[in-house]
Amino acid sequence: MKILPVGKLDPDLFRYLLNKYAFSDERVVVGAEFGEDAAVIDMGDRYLVAKSDPITFATDLIGWYAVNVNANDVASMGARPKWMLCTLLLPEGKTTPELAESLFAQIAQAAKSLGISLIGGHTEVTYGLDRPIVVGHMLGEVSKEKLVTSSGARPGDDIILVKGIPIEGTSIIAREKGEELRRRGYAEDFIERAKSYLFNPGISVVEAALLAVDTVPLHSMHDPTEGGLAMGLYEVAEASKVGFVIEEEAIEVLPEGQILCREFGLDPMGTIASGALIITLAPENTQALLEAFRKRGIKSSVIGRVLPIEDGRWVRKGGELKPMAIFPQDEITKIF
Fold first, then answer.
1. Cα–Cα distances in angstroms (integers) from residue 249 to residues 52, 63, 111, 274, 324, in the given order
2. What digits encode the pLDDT tens for the residues 299-335?
3. Which of 232, 22, 27 is nearest to 144 (CA)?
4. Strand ranges, E, within the chain
5. Cβ(148)–Cβ(38) below 8 Å
6. What phi-psi label fits residue 273: left (phi over 0), alpha (psi between -120 and 50 degrees) or beta?
7. Measured between alpha carbons, how far is 236 from 86 in angstroms, rounded to an integer?
8. Prediction pTM value
9. pLDDT tens across 85-104, in order?
10. I want to staple 298 with a disulfide (CB 3.0 to 4.6 A). Which of 126, 265, 276, 293 is the partner?
11. Domains of the chain
């Protein structure tokens, strides 16, 4: 019997399961499809965008993570996140009233900061857990003309990376391995800077995604998470049935992230990347979008170009092309 590793399912297995078991009615505009950030349902004059995502790697501030990663997926479809339900599964023998309240407080603070209403969910103490698990369910809405999917990338598009990598991964490493980093000689201010990546540059892409949608026509937008930027690019390419070439030197690997990935033997390209955003668009609209991000103080850069699918999926470093590696199992799993 084959035992699956920690992380996302193998893409081929996942597609097989979706093709065999997923189904939808005529009002479903985007359903269960590989590479898409969320589902889209026709509500008449607008679309309802729905997303569910758990927090499984982080144990510190998981309520904050849960709100932001689910809001990111909704915003990556061009929609404004509006309503959230949460399922909190708490460990038997370890859960106190204080722990339960701290999770509720984290969720409430993060939701209020994004204008999201907490409208329900489920909470229980669960047998067999060694840590809390938070599963978020986010709803948002978008006008029909502003919907963006992962599947719209076209050959000739520029590929823009918003912010850098690996924002979430850096914060998780510092928060989960703080004591070990101190033993290895890392200064307290370095550890605190890495921890603060959760807030600065931050794992939220809601502002950037909604600004992009309001600035120029976009062909696709995607929020890379598990499997890092590399997996996010692969998901866009698979959803859009295209190839790409990525310029490795154009990718901003943030300094604390670079150091921590090297320390623990992780590839930044495959390390959980919430806080980044992938956008593809026609080259004639690129400068206008980069300028809009610049005026808002949001870092962005062109990191590559979309190709026809038959031209392959490549990364160029030092003038040499090599096939882009993908990471069904996120690099962050190596530290757990």
1. 34, 35, 36, 20, 14
2. 999 999 999 999 999 999 988 999 999 998 999 999 9
3. 27
4. 28-30, 39-42, 47-55, 80-91, 117-126, 133-142, 158-162, 220-222, 242-247, 277-281, 300-308, 313-317, 320-323
5. no
6. alpha
7. 28
8. 0.93
9. 999 999 999 999 999 999 99
10. 293
11. 11-145 (3.30.1330.10), 150-335 (3.90.650.10)
In sequence order, the 6+-apart residues with CB closer than 8 A to the CB of 162 are 205, 208, 212, 276, 277, 278, 279, 293, 298, 299, 300
Q: Which is nearest to 69 in space by CA: 329, 157, 56?
A: 56
The token duo for 23 is 């189904």
Beta bridge partners of 166: none
Residue 329 parent element (H or E): none
Q: Tokens in use for 185? A: 């000689």
In the beta sheet, which residues pair with residue 88?
123, 134
Cα distance from N-terminal residue to C-terminal residue, the chain: 24
Residues 40 and 30: beta-carbon distance below 8 Å: yes
47 vs 4: CA distance, rounded Å: 36
